[in-house]
Each structure stands twice: as structure tokens, then as C-alpha cells.
Amino acid sequence: MRDNKLLFTGISYMLFAVFLMVCLDVAVKILLKNYPVTQIMFLRGGISLLIIGGAGYIAKGKSSFKTRYWRWHILRTTLMTISTSTFFLALSLIPLVNCMVIIFVAPIVVTALAGPFLGEVVGKWRWSAVLIGFIGILIILKPSGGFVDLGTIYAFIAAVTYALISLTSRKLANKETTYNLSFYMFIGPTLVGGVGSSFNWVVPTTEAWILFILCGVIGGVGFIFFNLAYQKAEASLLASFEYTSLIWAAAAGYYLFAETIDVNIWLGASIVILGGLTILLRESGRLKSIKN
Questions:
Q1: Considering the entire predicted model, what is its pTM?
Q2: Number of domains in the chain
């Protein structure tokens, strides 16, 4: 019963984190029309640092920032800087459809590396769930041509670095606090974004400030739940549930950007859900979760 409870808790945290990340992507998509990538990185990262740092201080005081894993945090903030900058650059250079198809290579990378990097047993059912989900995404997005360009390279780099962030989150899940795993990630993007935006700063409008603040709050809270999920369940299990972001993205496109949701989206979404339910039902009684 305890393992099952941790399983459902981890999946719930991941699903909520994915939802928040889609909200973040929508806000960034709007901001990229008028503001440079570095400025979005700076304000998003700085506000996230304030949110996560404040929550950690309220919970545990100054001791919440103590850590013995500086090398890991340096690696993670470097990965976060690369992932954030390349993903935003990809969004600005290639169609969103193409970008998202490439980004969702990440769950496959996580599943492939979970064995050698984390020592997890990645069986055929988990591989099947990830691959089923990816097929669903291809049906939803119907990727167009133009994949071989600079934007594609940026998106692929973002996917790989995001996957490595996921793996390191699981690696440190039972060693480091959730606040530290989330807080130190944003130092790199904030510093790099601050330096870069000092050369091409655009004064934000009131509406833009609201979106920037939302980016920081949503991004900070999203990564808190992202790291909480990896404290409860294995990386190779959670990977397939990241595909649910396509369902939220389709809804956002319909209601916010007047995009038509055709039959392919419903069919693909059903396949995505099927992949997640398959792995959930198959392994709910066998998952080896980290104890509290």
C-alpha cells in the first residue's frame, strides 16, 4: 500500500508540474514576440529564485540553503542554462509544432539512461509506454518540413539537457532537499540572462510585467513539484507522463490562440493517455519508490 501511495503521489506531482510548464510555455510564446530571450531568462529566473528561496527560508530558515552537493548543483544550473536558452531560441526560430516534437525526445533519453545512470530496471512495459506516447505525439502534431536548421539543433540540445536535468533530479532525490534542487537550478539562467539582457533591454509594459511575474512564479512552483515527483517515483516511470503536456497545449491553442483541434489531436491524446495508463496499471504494485 505504501509503495502504491508513493507511486500515485509522484505521478500526481509530475502531472501538475507538466501542467504548470505548459502554462509557462504559453506565457513565453507571447513574450517572445516583443522581448529578447535573455530578458525572459533573467526575469523568469530571478522571480523563480525569489519564490523558491522565500519558500525555503520560511520552511527551514537559513539552513534550507546548506548543501554538500555543490558540484551537482553547478552541473544542474549549467544544464538548466543551456536547456532554457536553447529551448527559447528554438521557439523563436522554428514552428512550435516542430520544436515540441524534438523536445519530446527527452522522455526516451531519460528511459534509455535510467538504467546505466540510476541503476533502474527499465523493462519492456516502460519502454512501450514511452514509445506509445511518442507515437501519439506524432499523430497530434503532424510535424512539417524544415527540421534541418539551426532551430532544430537548438531544440535537440534543449531536449537532451532537459533529460539530464530529470536524471540528476532523481539521482539526488534522497540526498538533497527539494528547495535546493529547485533553487540552485535558476542561478545560472538568471546570471546569463542578466548579462545578456543588459545589452538589449526592452522596457516591459504593464501587461508584460504580469506575464514575466507569472513566468517566474509558475516556473518556480513547477520545478518544485517536478523535483518532488522524482523523490516519490523512478525517472523511467515518470517519463511517459510528461507527454500529457500535449493535451494541455492543445487546449491552450484552442482557447487562447484560436487553433482548431482536429481528429488527429483527439486520437493522439487518447494514445498518450493509453501509454500512461498502461505503465500505471502494470507496475503500480511493483514500483520501488524512495521512502520518506
A1: 0.77
A2: 1
